[in-house]
Amino acid sequence: MIKRSLIAAALCLAFAAAGFAQQPASNAPASKQDVEKYLDAIHINQTMLKMAQAMAKPMHQMIHEEYVKNKEKCNLPPDFEARMDKVMDEMMESWPWQRMLQATIPVYQKYFTKSDMETLAAFYSGPVGQKMMREMPSIMADTMQVTMPFMMQHSKEMAQRIRQDVYQAEKNSQKKSCPPAPGS
């Protein structure tokens, strides 16, 4: 009787230990391979390339608008816009996309479990997920186009505020090395 009780207790302990030793798959941390499988499902390399190309269009437009607005006032050479476009294109092409991508893997692992990554990979492998990935570059380009005026205006306001603060700080310290800020 004692022998059976000891065997039963040993079996219970063995099963309990096995249960504690293995985390349920839903709570297991995502592995590097889980994240890479998800990134493959979203065609991350092609997506990053398309997004960079899509972002280039509004950036070229912004360069063009600034060139037209300032070419006479700033005495810009005729080839300035083309040179700036080339610099911007070279910068986008030389961006360290793969290093950046590898650096994101631990971030995904921090926030997602193995089960999460499997669910995301399954979604993005399906038709709606694939449509999302096909449309994302266009969505991003359109988003940049409609938000660029807000960003430009906000940047101008911030620059004006900084100029005013610098002018006021210099005025208060009696140093007059900078010209007054416009509108001050």
Structure description:
The longest helix has 46 residues, at 127-172. The chain has a domain at 26-137. The model is unreliable at 5-23 (pLDDT under 50). Helix 3 (44-70) runs antiparallel to helix 4 (80-93). The chain has helices at residues 2-21, 32-41, 44-70, 80-93, 97-111, 114-125, 127-172. With 184 residues, it is an all-alpha fold.
Total beta strands: 0
Tell me the strand percentage band: under 5%
Rg for CA atoms: 29 Å
Order of helices and strands: HHHHHHH
Key traits:
single chain, 184 residues, mainly alpha, 7 helices
Write the layout of secondary structure elements.
Layout: H1 2-21, H2 32-41, H3 44-70, H4 80-93, H5 97-111, H6 114-125, H7 127-172
Helix pairs in contact: 2-6, 3-4, 3-7
Q: Quick recap of the structure?
A:
The protein has 184 residues and is mainly α. The protein has helices at residues 2-21, 32-41, 44-70, 80-93, 97-111, 114-125, 127-172.
